[in-house]
């Protein structure tokens, strides 16, 4: 289409100009709707995908120095930033609550009976997450759950010890296993096979007790208890098709060697590696607070990234080659069994023996013939 133009005489009224433009447009056969239709349509933006996170104060990034949830610090946000590199349209939907327990995720109340610090329109953290997942079928790419430590921590108050503490820990850990399995199953039922599901183990904050004479027995005891909790969490996750981020492994929670020199209030001291990690990556040794610091949250996020990394397909095993068939010289002998004559009406038994070189067991099919006739 050529460019339409019109010469306007000097002093021509605006109304006349408008009429001329309208006439030119009409003459060209164009309409405003036609012009709109001729414009290229804007490409639709791809539908967003979602990362849904559930959990406790680690999921919300709670920091004792500010006494607030720091979403930038939280491992969930760090994991989200990493996942977004390969999923540009990924959005984070956090449902975590500082102070949450596995029981409160299910019921809205903490395991010790106190109300949860967060409220949800659906009533519980799990119900809210499940509702979101169901409202976005096929759009949820990742689901993470970090819960269970707050259920057992009340068993280890200051100065706690003895059988009462161990009985409390045993009961709480067993309860955590049941509750986490229920949480995982509900999330998987809501999301189906589309999302990647991942839970976590926990580092052991009570290792910090190693720094004091009175605290060393509890620190030593806590290693086995923490392992029992983490084994229970891993089992519940595996049962429901969840991967498990090995946070305990990232913090070297069971590594009592080598000895590492660290800074502590009042100077430097030499401690086992697992104690050093807790002192360096949490607030336990500086502020007597169990929460991870900035470095610790990054280590937790890295553990989640590793758990979500695609596993290489193992190579198919090469079937063994069949043993080659080796022909060896043999000797064959045959004789009748028993003393009787062979007639057309009476059967006889023949024992045939095939021998080969020493150490070689001959194989194959033995055929007895009478001339060309197979007997």
TrEMBL record:
It holds the Pfam family Lipase_GDSL_2. It comes from the Bacteria. Residues 54-298 form the SGNH hydrolase-type esterase domain. This is SGNH hydrolase-type esterase domain-containing protein.
């Amino acid at each position: 289409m050529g460019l339409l133009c019109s010469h306007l005489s000097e002093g021509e009224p605006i109304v006349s100009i408008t009429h001329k433009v309208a006439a030119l447009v009409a003459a060209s056969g164009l309409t405003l709707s036609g012009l709109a239709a001729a414009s290229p349509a804007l490409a639709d933006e791809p539908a967003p995908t979602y990362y849904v996170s559930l959990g406790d104060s680690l999921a919300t990034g709670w920091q004792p120095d500010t006494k607030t949830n720091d979403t930038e610090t939280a491992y969930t946000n760090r994991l989200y930033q990493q996942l977004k590199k390969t999923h540009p349209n990924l959005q984070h939907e956090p449902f975590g609550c500082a102070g949450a327990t596995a029981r409160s995720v299910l019921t809205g109340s903490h395991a010790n009976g106190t109300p949860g610090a967060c409220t949800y329109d659906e009533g519980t953290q799990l119900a809210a997450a499940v509702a979101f997942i169901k409202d976005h079928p096929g759009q949820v790419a990742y689901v993470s759950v970090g819960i269970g430590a707050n259920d057992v921590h009340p068993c280890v108050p200051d100065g706690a010890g003895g059988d009462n503490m161990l009985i409390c820990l045993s009961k709480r850990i067993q309860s955590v296993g049941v509750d986490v399995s229920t949480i995982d199953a509900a999330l998987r039922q809501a999301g189906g096979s589309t999302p990647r599901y991942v839970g976590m183990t926990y580092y052991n904050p009570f290792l910090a007790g190693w720094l004091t004479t009175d605290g060393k027995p509890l620190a030593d005891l806590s290693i086995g208890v923490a392992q029992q909790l983490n084994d229970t969490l891993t089992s519940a996750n595996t049962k429901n098709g969840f991967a498990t981020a090995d946070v305990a492994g990232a913090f070297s929670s069971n590594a009592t060697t080598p000895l590492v020199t660290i800074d502590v209030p009042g100077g430097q001291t030499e401690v086992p590696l697992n104690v050093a990690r807790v002192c360096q990556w949490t607030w336990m040794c500086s502020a007597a607070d169990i929460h991870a610091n900035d470095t610790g949250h990054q280590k937790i996020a890295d553990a989640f990234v590793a758990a979500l990394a695609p596993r290489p397909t193992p190579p198919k095993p090469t079937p063994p080659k069949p043993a080659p068939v080796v022909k060896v010289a043999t000797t064959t002998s045959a004789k009748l069994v028993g003393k009787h004559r062979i007639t057309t009406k009476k059967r006889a038994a023949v024992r045939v023996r095939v021998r080969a070189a020493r150490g070689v067991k001959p194989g194959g099919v033995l055929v007895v013939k009478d001339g060309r006739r197979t007997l």
